[in-house]
Sequence to fold (661 residues):
Amino acid sequence: MSTDAQSAAATTQIEAFTESARSRSGEDLADYAQLWQWSVDQPAGFWRALWDFYDLGDVASTADSAAITDDADVLADREMPGARWFPGVRLNYVSAILRHCDRPGTAVVGLDEDGTRTDIGWSELPGLVTGFARTLTDLGVGEGDVVAAYLPDVPEAVVAFLGTAYVGAIWSGCGQDYAPGGAAGRLAQLHPKVLISATGYRYNGKDVDKTADSAALADLLPDLVAHVVVGDADQGAVPGGVSYADAVGADGSATAPAQVPFDHPLWVLFSSGTTGRPKGIVHGHGGVVVEHLKAGGLHGDLGPDDVFFWQTALSWMMWNYQVAGLLCGARIVCYSGSPLSPDADRLWQIVESEKVTYFGTSPGQLQASRKAGLVPGREHDLSALRTLGSTGSTLAADLFTWVDDNVKRGLPISSISGGTDVVTAFAGGSTGVPVVAGELPVRYLGVALQSWAPDRTPLVGEVGEMVITAPMPSMPVSFWDDPDGARYRAAYFDHEWAVPSDEPVWRHGDWVTVTDRGSLIIHGRSDATLNRHGIRMGSADIYEVVEGIDEIAEAFVLGVDGPDGAYWMPLFVTLVPDATLDDDLRSRIAAEVRRRLSPRHVPDEVIEAPGIPHTRTGKKLEVPVTGILAGRSEVSIDPRSVDDHGLIEWYAERGRAHRWR
Fold:
């Protein structure tokens, strides 16, 4: 952080940044709204100010490449897709982390389900990272090669990722909850040269042996030259086997980080792949560095005094986002167990024992805590906790209230919305900005987010399509194996608006309301729209109401088009233990939906389901299951991308049994 920021010890990072930006821009920047407007009106000026604020010239390769003197040095081409950011800069993501390694204390904590704790000190981190990097170079792995991971959320994954990026190779991770075929559906596309896997882990009270699955995955990756194994294993029985201990124990003292172009690939993340081959989304070193410092540092105020814990898995972009804590000099916590084992209190125990200051979780975990009757603020010492983050789905307003009443009075809640696509949030909570239950307080700096009507008119106070009208540094560099960019453009830019235009905008596929205060309300996916009697409704609005009813564990509402203009809107629910879906509960559901939303939102029927199907990252499968209920033959769901594929036939049978009126 710059000298100016360091001198403002009593302020938050965003306050110090605002003062610096005010001085250099000559703008008033009297409040967040003005700061945001400046950041999207003058993107080159904003990102240049952030570059200087975090002293990123110190991690670039030469004085010439670090000299950012005018707007063209920041944003040479604004065209989307393909904007050119910091075209003269060469740097390495890992350098921006290792500059913190003169700090005392722990950088990375690892916890398993039984509570076994490991830690990596800041002083240890460079040796482990460069050791792994040296092993990779000895194996012939260098810039542009791929290292694939099949791992739980453990510190070894962080070290392996940093060692991979250090040499300019490309990282891609997959959680070990995937079967070998599902993991190969992603990783085999990348032709990795090295696989790193674990012998197993403990989850939901059981020891899970992944030795055979790891070997099976390795067999499905024909370009491997080595297989690095975390845990006790007979390396001689593993073709190309290298123990993790040997890999990080190599002498990397003479190695230096590869200085790569700003947009050099850092990692490949994958779309859910529920209805087709998962798309590999490529992000660059520089874009991730500046975006994650902005999101973690400016908006989250993460710094050297923080402990950052976001319960996640390698298959989810939040794992990559959690590593951003190291960019900010914070300690990060990796947890490889179930968030609900032995019960819903498990994560709160970790927050207490690790003195977590920023805890990231999901609406599902908070809902489970509420339904279990937990009062974490009374049952645990949460005095260190200063921010609670939530993502994965919309956080209902009543859960904001539950946190305030049961976790910590006045605790800021940062419900964020973004995605794998940009490996960050478009909007969410920000230090110093008040929180309103059910809303995302701000559009993030540098994110030109609007809500649009079909004719491309910006809307305020009305539901519209979420669009991003200007480039962001962490937008994908490319899709993997998409040489002409056709799949990339189709994913975000090929939407047909009622009023055509040659000006490209990023359409994210969410319904959103931008309030007159600049906050956001997310209503659900626009490609899973409920459209009853010509009135568009978001599924998230219904979930907020229904999942707030004590007996309901989870809800799943779908809008199904039938023959001759018929429309069916069933609500599927799962129940908490000992609850019964009787006429009384059905009536209460309808009454609550009618009272809090409208009569149009009341479902046609409420059906108890054996489960709700999700992607591996926890998103409800609204779009494909809607197609299945409609009887569309072209719908195909990859069983490897779904948490319980056995449910799909149950829903298909409900569709076949439905009688259209």
Notes: DSSP finds 22 helices and 35 strands in the chain. The two ends are 65 Å apart (CA to CA). The CA atoms of residues 99 and 345 lie 36 Å apart.
